């Protein structure tokens, strides 16, 4: 047994019997501690970045520079050719002043102008109608003058007949008194019966004269009434005929004006301003509706009209700041210009509406909303100089439409899946 016990050394046996009071610690290096601290710090920074960091979604819009009062496009009212161009680009023009002349004359096989021939025919008709009007008015005036003479004559005869009638009445009245006295005297035998009979005969004669004058007055008054009716008829007929002929003259005059307008038309400026563009040359053929001249009205500042699709318009509001990049002034050299949204169209514009206004973005496959931007300044600083903007300059813009935290952006797909599941 003692031999078996001596198989292991005494020190080994004692070390097995005496256990250590704690675990073994391995000393770490300084690099390991730095790496651990850095990892923790990075994790904290990532969490803070995701929580406090924000992601801004921007809408990229396109448009062009426009005057605040709108760009006035003067279009051709009819087909023809430009006979004369009165204005040039950059020229100041006043309202009502001529801009250009359109000649729409057509010619027949012989080379005669159709409008010229028609105008000549209308002029001849006008002259003939004027002569007819003068003749009829003159004849009507003569007839009315004759009737006025008859009226005056009849009135004079009536006055004379009335005087004669009045005298006859007075004579009859006196003769009646005399006859009454003769009747008394005859009854008392102071005068003879023959004398009394003679007085009666004279009285009857006077009564007959009175009746004759009365009949003449009545006859003359009837004649006067007829003549007055004739005069009224001719006066009315004269007015009616005059109005009818004047109306025909006005119709011929209107036809002449319309034909003259078809032949050569002068187009005047509707507003005062600056000629921004002349898109035709003298002698050039044009069709009705073609744009010939564009005018920037006086006292117009420049604005930018941008066009936003429906997917972006919901988050664009008035007062938002806009970053503008003018194609004529590369932003890499001259920076981004600032602006502010001042107006948003209430309804979408169809492509045809935008084309009519002369503002056609590159992508126009859908209806767009107009976003009007007020510029911070009307010029662009380039190489130390203030360069003016020009109507029609192409512009691209950035507008912030949405701002979200980064963790919301990362968790967005999960949130959408949850909403679909629910």
Features:
alpha+beta; six-stranded antiparallel β-barrel; Helix Hairpins; 422 residues; elongated; OB fold (Dihydrolipoamide Acetyltransferase, E2P); four-stranded antiparallel beta sheet; single chain
Q: Would you write up a description of this structure?
A:
The protein has 422 residues and is α+β, with helices and mostly antiparallel strands. Among the domains are: 2-56, no CATH class; 69-97 and 269-298, RNA polymerase II/Efflux pump adaptor protein, barrel-sandwich hybrid domain (OB fold (Dihydrolipoamide Acetyltransferase, E2P), Beta Barrel); 114-258, Helix Hairpins. Helix content is 50%, strand content 24%. It has 9 helices and 16 strands. It has helices at 2-5, 10-17, 30-52, 114-187, 193-263, 310-313, 331-334, 351-356, 406-421; strands spanning 54-67, 72-75, 80-85, 92-93, 98-103, 264-268, 273-278, 285-286, 291-297, 302-308, 321-326, 337-344, 369-375, 379-382, 385-388, 394-405. Helix 4 runs antiparallel to helix 5. The mean pLDDT is 78. Residues 137-171 form a coiled coil. It is found in: Membrane. It comes from Enterovibrio coralii.
Strand content: 15-25%
Overall mean pLDDT = 78
Distance between the termini: 81 Å
From the 3D structure, determine the CATH topology of the domain at 114-258: Helix Hairpins
Number of strands: 16
Order of helices and strands: HHHEEEEEHHEEEEEHEHEHEEEEH
Can you tell me the residue ranges where pLDDT is under 50 for at least 5 consecutive residues? none
Estimate the global geometry from the Cα principal axes.
elongated
Q: Using the coordinates above, name the CATH class of the domain at 114-258.
A: Mainly Alpha
Main sheet properties:
6 strands, antiparallel, barrel
Q: Please bin the fraction of helical residues.
A: 40-55%
Helix tally equals 9
Estimated structural class: alpha+beta
InterPro entries: Beta-barrel_AprE, MdtA-like_BSH, MFP, Secretion_HlyD_CS
Protein name: Toxin secretion, membrane fusion protein
Membrane topology: Single-pass membrane protein
Coiled coil: 137-171
């Amino acid at each position: 047994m003692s031999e078996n016990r001596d198989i292991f050394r005494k020190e080994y046996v004692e070390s097995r019997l005496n256990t250590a009071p704690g675990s073994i610690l391995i000393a770490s290096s300084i690099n390991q501690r730095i790496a651990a601290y850095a990892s923790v710090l990075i994790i904290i920074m990532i969490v803070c970045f995701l929580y406090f960091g924000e992601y801004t979604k921007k809408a990229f819009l396109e448009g062009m520079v426009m005057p605040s009062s709108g760009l006035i496009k003067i279009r051709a009212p009819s087909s023809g050719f430009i006979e004369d161009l009165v204005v040039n680009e950059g020229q100041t023009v006043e309202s009502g002043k001529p801009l250009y002349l359109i000649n729409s004359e057509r010619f027949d096989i012989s080379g005669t102008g159709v409008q010229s021939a028609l105008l000549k025919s209308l002029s001849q008709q006008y002259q003939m109608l004027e002569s007819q009007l003068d003749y009829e008015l003159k004849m009507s005036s003569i007839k009315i003058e004759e009737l006025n003479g008859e009226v005056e004559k009849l009135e004079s005869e009536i006055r004379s007949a009335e005087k004669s009638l009045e005298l006859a009445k007075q004579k009859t009245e006196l003769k009646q008194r005399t006859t009454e006295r003769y009747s008394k005297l005859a009854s008392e035998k102071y005068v003879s019966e023959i004398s009394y009979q003679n007085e009666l005969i004279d009285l009857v004669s006077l009564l007959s004269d009175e009746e004759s004058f009365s009949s003449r007055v009545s006859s003359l008054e009837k004649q006067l009434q007829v003549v007055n009716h004739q005069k009224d008829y001719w006066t009315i007929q004269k007015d009616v005929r005059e109005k009818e002929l004047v109306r025909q003259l006005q119709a011929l005059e209107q036809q002449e004006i319309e034909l003259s307008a078809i032949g050569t038309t002068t187009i005047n400026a509707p507003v005062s301003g600056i000629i921004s563009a002349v898109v035709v040359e003298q002698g050039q053929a044009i069709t009705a509706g073609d744009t010939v001249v564009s005018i920037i009205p006086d006292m117009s500042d420049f604005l930018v009209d941008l066009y936003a699709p429906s997917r972006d318009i919901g988050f664009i509001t008035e007062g938002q700041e806009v970053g503008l990049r003018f194609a004529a002034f590369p932003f890499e050299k001259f920076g981004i210009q600032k602006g502010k949204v001042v107006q948003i169209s209430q309804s979408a514009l169809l492509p045809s509406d935008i084309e009519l206004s002369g503002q056609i973005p590159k992508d126009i496959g859908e209806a767009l909303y107009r976003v009007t931007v007020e510029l911070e300044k009307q010029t662009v600083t380039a190489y130390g100089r203030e360069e003016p903007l020009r109507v029609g300059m192409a512009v691209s813009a950035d507008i912030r439409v949405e701002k979200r935290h980064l963790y919301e952006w990362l968790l967005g797909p999960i949130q959408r899946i949850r909403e679909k599941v629910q």
